[in-house]
């Protein structure tokens, strides 16, 4: 479920003059193992214990301008195809960050950086 005031989403869509707006949320996955990065020669570059990876994900909620209905064929059609079509034509496809995405990702990166620096003390 999306716990957001839909009026905020609609205002974002209108204020940014988007033809299509995707509502995104942050999804974090915890990897239960250390992850390894290697150099081209196969030597260890870095290791990170049990990292958390955060991604902006598509919630499946969209706002479309009524004019886009003509761009949707009668047969089965993924909304992602419409997004790609609009992007390829230089048209506006916005992403509304439900849950203050940017702030959540910023905090997540800071915590990650702090954890790394603590391990190096």
Gist of the model:
It contains 3 helices and 5 strands. With 121 residues, it is an alpha+beta fold.
Helix content: 25-40%
Number of distinct helices = 3
Oligomer: single chain
Using the alpha-carbon principal axes, give the shape.
elongated
Summarize the main sheet: 3 strands, mixed
Strand arrangement in the largest pleated sheet: 4-1-5
- Mean pLDDT, to the nearest integer, reads 86
Straight-line distance between termini = 42 Å
Unreliable spans: none
Return the string of H and E elements.
HEEEEHEH
Strand content range:
25-35%
- Strand tally is 5
Rg over C-alpha atoms, rounded to the nearest angstrom: 20 Å
Give me the secondary-structure category: alpha+beta
Task: Characterise the protein shown here.
The radius of gyration is 20 Å and the shape is elongated. The longest helix has 19 residues. The protein starts with 5 loop residues before the first helix and ends with a helix. The mean pLDDT is 86. It is built from 3 helices and 5 strands. It has a 3-stranded mixed β-sheet with strand order 4-1-5. Strands 2-3 form a two-stranded antiparallel ribbon. By secondary structure, it is α+β, with helices and mostly antiparallel strands.
Characteristic key phrases:
121 residues, alpha+beta, three-stranded mixed β-sheet, 5 strands, 32% helix
